[in-house]
Write a structure and sequence with these properties.
There is one protein chain. The protein is an alpha+beta fold. It has three domains: about 5-205, MHC class I-like antigen recognition-like (Murine Class I Major Histocompatibility Complex, H2-DB, Chain A, domain 1); about 210-300, Immunoglobulins (Immunoglobulin-like), CATH 2.60.40; about 310-353. The protein is built from seven helices and 17 strands. The chain has helices at about 5-15, 80-110, 160-170, 175-190, 195-200, 200-205, 305-350, and strands at about 30-40, 45-55, 55-60, 70, 115-125, 130-140, 140-150, 155, 210-220, 220-230, 240-245, 245, 255, 260, 265-275, 285-290, 295-300. The strands form three sheets. It has an eight-stranded antiparallel beta sheet, with helices on one face. Strands 9, 10, 13, 14 and 15 form a five-stranded antiparallel beta sheet that branches. It has a four-stranded antiparallel beta sheet with strand order 12-11-16-17. Strand 7 (about 140-150) and strand 8 form a beta hairpin. Helix 1 (about 5-15) runs antiparallel to helix 2 (about 80-110) and helix 1 runs parallel beside helix 4. It is elongated and about 105 Å long. It starts with a helix and ends with a helix. The model is unreliable at about 15-25, about 305-320 and about 350-353 (pLDDT under 50).
Length: about 350
Amino acid sequence: MQHPCCCFLLLLLCLLLLSGTWANLEGTFTIRLLQTSTFQNTSFVETEGLGLLEDIELGSLDKHTWTIHFYQPWVRPSLPRSDWDTIENMIKIYLQQFSHLINEGAMQKDVPYPFVAQCMVGCELYPNWTARSFAYVGYNGQDFLSFDMDNATWVLSQDTSLSRYVQAILQNYTAFTELVEVLFNDTCVDDMELLLRNGKAALERQELPVATVFARTPRPDQLLLICHVTGFYPRPISVAWLQDGQEVPPGPALNTSAVLPNADLTYQLRITLAVAPHDGHSYACRVRHRSLGTGSLLIPWGNSEVVLLAGLGAGLLAGVAMAAIMTLWVWRRRKRQQMEESESRNSILSKEA
C-alpha cells in the first residue's frame, strides 16, 4: 500500500511532467510540487497545492472543490480533457484517504490541533541530462522528514517520537519506495521534455534590470551607499559594490537584501555599503544579469559625479564665454560701421561747404 501523501505528490508530478521533444534550452531546471494541509480538528482540513517550473506557477488545487486551476495556457492542452478528469478524481480520493490517515495518526500520538503538514517533491534537471530528485515533509513550518534517493530511505530532519512514528510508517511502504526510485531517477528526466518545450517562451523571458544609486546619512560619521536594482527577470542576479574598481568582499559594512518579487512578475533587491564620508575612495555599483549578456551595468557614485558636474560646469562656462566673445565681436563691428558711416557723412558735408 502506498502512502497517500506521497501518492498525491507523485500524481501531481506525473500530471506536470509530460512526454515530448526536448526543447533547445540551456541551464538547470527545477520542478517543485507543494502541498499544504491545515488540520483544524478531526473533521475539518484545508489542503492547497501548487506546481512550479522554476518560479513559473503552472497550476494550483482549489481548496474547496479539489479541482485544478491552470495558470499557464500551455499546460492544460498537454493532456486530453478525459485525462484531467481522471486525475482530478484520483486527487479527491487521495485527499480523503490522506485526511483520514493523518487524523488517525494524530489521535494515536496525541498531536494537538490545529497543525499543518507540508510536502515538497520535485526534481532538478541539469544540462548534461543528469538529475537530482528530492522529497521533503514538514510539520508546523519546520523540516520533518526527507527522502534519501540514493538509499531509498526516509531520513529524520528532527528526532522526535512523532517523526520516528511517521518515518516507520513511510518506510514500511516498500511499493512506494520502489515507485519513487523509478519515477524520480528515470521518468523525471524523460517526461520533462514536453513541459520544457511548451513553456520555452516563458522560461526564456528576460527583462533588463534598472539600477539606481543613492545615499543616506544615518549619523555624521557614516554614509550609506544604496544600490537599488529592480525590474529584472529571471531571478538570478549578481550585484556588487566596487571600491576603486575592486569588489567589496562580504563583511559587516556590506548588507544585501533578499531578492523580492514585484507585482509585474519581475524582481528587485538592494545592496547597501557603509562608508566614511569623504574617505577619498571612488565607488560604483556593478550589476550582472542574463539579460545583459556578457556585459554589465556600472553605476558610479562620488568622484565620478563630481567629474560629471565639473564637466557640465566647464561646458556651461565655455558656452557663456563663447556667447560673450560673439556679443563683443558683433558690438565692435557695429561700432566700426557706425564710425565709418559718420566719417563718410562728415567728408561729404565738408566738400559741400
